[in-house]
Amino acid sequence: QVTYLGKVSTTGMQFLSGCTEKPVIELWKKHTLAREDIYPANALLEIRPFQVWLHHLDLKGEATVHMDTFQVARIAYCTADHNVSPNVFAWVYREINDDLSYQMDCHAVECESKLEAKKLAHAMMEAFKKTFHSMKSDGRIHRNSSSEEVSHEFESDDG
Hints:
Mean pLDDT: 81
Shape: globular
Order of helices and strands: EHEEEEEEHHE
Strand order of the largest sheet: 1-7-6-5-8
Largest sheet: 5 strands, mixed
Number of domains: 1
CATH superfamily: Pleckstrin-homology domain (PH domain)/Phosphotyrosine-binding domain (PTB)
Radius of gyration: 16 Å
Number of strands: 8
Oligomer: single chain
Number of helices: 3
Low-confidence stretches: 145-156
Structural class: alpha+beta
C-alpha cells in the first residue's frame, strides 16, 4: 500500500539520475499542504510484466473501481530515494494523447519505508526486463538496436 502523490508533466527526452527530483518536490509540496487525511495509504501499486496497476482505495482501505493502468513499455525511468523523502518511488511515463502526440508525466507514491520504495524500484526493473525480453522474442523490438543500449535507457536508479 502506498500514498499516491499524483503526477506532473515533465520535459526532456534524456532521463538520467536526478531527473525526477524537481517533479517529486512539486508533488511532495502539494501533498504535504493538503495532508489532512487520517488514512495516508490511498492506493495499492501492483507491478507486473507488461502492466503496472494503481488501485485507488476508499477511506476504509478497500479497492474502488477506479484503477490507473500503465504499460511497462512506456515507462522511461523509475527511481527511489529522493532528497525530499527516501520513501518516495517515482516513474516517468509516456502518455499518448487523443491526437497521438505524447507527453511525459512523472508519477510518485510515498511508501511506508525507504526499503519499500527500493523494492518497488527493483520490481519495476524486473517487470521491464521481462517485458523487454518478451517484446524482443516477439519481434516487436528489432534486432539491429543494441539491447544493452535500450535497456540502459530504462534502468532503475534506486539511490
